[in-house]
């Protein structure tokens, strides 16, 4: 089992990022008080009957960070290292992310501290249904709309939708996004995060004068976000030279055949054993000579101790929070162009927004329509962030946070405070 350095508290890092952007924006203290912290935090105990007949209790969370611009929106993570502070950080980032791509949602996130790799499908279903019942008062199409995140998927969303609908007495597809297509899911949602990552990399390459065709790429984390980004980069003529997952990594300096690697991963759940590739450790993978590094796993992958070893020209944050602020500074000093998470991986929530709109209208769109709309949203957001970077001479992360935080601040100012 590979390990990541997850010792830094993600929520403290999220607050540091907020302050850095709020300072440049010159945000007054009253507005900071109103928008910085989560609006609602729920911790629940989820008892589950395991297959051996025993009851096990899981700790789980749903955090609503902001409803200033619309209902809460954000995924649900199943992972052994989920903590309340991690979920608070992820919910905070969702608020700024939705504002960066200018969709009418606030930010929320959920998590269950569990090890889904060591649970059966029946145990996962019982866990999901009981967790849904526990957070039921908080969620709904007008209130807070969950979606998949690490180690959850369209099946998890189907169970949530079914449990919520059973309680209401009628089908409520708009309570979650990332659903199976036959339950009101959207074409393109499964690919949306990786596709959004790809569009922002295209924009960055154009800005930097770096040809994407022939560019060398390294991807850390070969799940939903990482594998689709790798697939699109490969199809665009980039050379994906290394990828890894939680158990192993593979490297070929002439480029990996990504469609075949995806096939292997779908069959075995691993990238290990891919022919015509050599194994690579997580540390060596991050330190590879390459043009573009895509961290697509978990928080704090690049930190103060390994940042200096990164040799990429562009870092595209498909994951949430993969770089600590200390790593940011090291990479900025080296002249690395960073596409920050709240911009880079916003394609997922953007197509979730399209899914929610389609569910609410009961009218479904063509795949190409979704891709065209997504491309437009991502490219406008990239250019908005780049303009702030150039106008204010700040790095891309501060610029993205300024855009997101500024829009949320405007919303609360206009809404006012009562009483
Ligand atoms: N799925 C989505 O729509 C979105 C996901 N994200 C973020 O993208 C990141 C990945 O999420 P998904 O792809 O959805 O999850 P996933 O569950 O589909 O895949 C996660 C992948 O990361 C790998 N992994 C886990 N720990 C690792 C480690 N220490 N080193 C290397 N690989 C490791 C796993 O083996 C798996 O292949 C997360 O940070 C998530 O919050 C962000 C926006 C939307
Ligand atoms: O699709 C969504 O609603 C949220 C995706 C998500 O959790 C994220 O962007 O981190």
From TrEMBL:
Keywords: NAD, Nucleotide-binding, Oxidoreductase. NAD(+) binds at residues 193, 224. PROSITE patterns: GLFV_DEHYDROGENASE. GO terms for molecular function: glutamate dehydrogenase (NAD+) activity; nucleotide binding. Signal peptide: none annotated. Residues 186-416 form the Glutamate/phenylalanine/leucine/valine/L-tryptophan dehydrogenase C-terminal domain. This is Glutamate dehydrogenase.
């Amino acid at each position: 089992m590979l390990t990541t350095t997850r010792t830094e508290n993600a929520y403290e890092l999220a607050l540091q990022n907020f302050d850095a952007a709020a300072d440049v924006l010159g945000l007054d203290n009253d507005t900071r008080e109103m928008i910085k912290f989560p609006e609602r935090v729920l911790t629940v105990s989820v008892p589950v009957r395991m297959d051996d007949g025993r009851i096990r209790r899981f700790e789980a969370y749903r955090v609503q960070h902001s409803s200033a611009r619309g209902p809460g929106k954000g995924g649900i993570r199943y992972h052994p290292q989920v903590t309340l502070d991690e979920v608070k950080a992820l919910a905070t980032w969702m608020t700024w992310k939705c504002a960066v791509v200018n969709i009418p949602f606030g930010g929320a996130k959920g998590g269950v501290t569990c090890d889904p790799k060591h649970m059966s499908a029946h145990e996962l279903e019982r866990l999901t249904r009981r967790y849904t019942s526990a957070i039921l008062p908080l969620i709904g199409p007008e209130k807070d709309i969950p979606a998949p995140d690490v180690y959850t998927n369209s099946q998890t969303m189907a169970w949530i939708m079914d449990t919520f609908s059973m309680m209401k007495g009628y089908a409520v597809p708009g309570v979650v996004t990332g659903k199976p297509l036959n339950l009101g899911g959207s074409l393109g949602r499964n690919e949306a995060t990786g596709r959004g990552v790809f569009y922002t990399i295209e924009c960055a390459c154009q800005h930097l004068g770096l040809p994407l065709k022939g560019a060398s790429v390294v991807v850390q984390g070969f799940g939903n976000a990482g594998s689709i980004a790798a697939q699109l980069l490969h199809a665009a003529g980039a050379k994906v030279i290394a990828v890894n997952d939680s158990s192993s990594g593979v490297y070929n300096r002439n480029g990996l055949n990504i469609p075949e690697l995806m096939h292997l991963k779908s069959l075995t759940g691993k990238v290990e054993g891919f022919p015509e590739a050599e194994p690579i450790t997580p540390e060596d993978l991050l330190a590879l000579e390459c043009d573009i590094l895509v961290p697509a796993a978990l928080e704090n992958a690049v930190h103060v101790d390994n940042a200096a070893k990164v040799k990429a020209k562009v870092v595209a944050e498909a994951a949430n929070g993969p770089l600590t602020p200390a790593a940011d500074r090291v990479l900025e000093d080296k002249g690395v162009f960073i596409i920050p998470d709240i911009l880079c991986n916003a394609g997922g929530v953007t197509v979730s927004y399209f899914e929610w709109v389609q569910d609410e209208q009961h009218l479904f769109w063509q795949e190409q329509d979704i891709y065209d709309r997504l491309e437009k949203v991502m490219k406008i957001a990239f250019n908005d962030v780049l303009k702030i970077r150039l106008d204010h001479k700040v790095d891309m992360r501060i610029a993205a946070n300024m855009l997101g935080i500024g829009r949320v601040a405007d919303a609360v100012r206009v809404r006012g405070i009562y009483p």
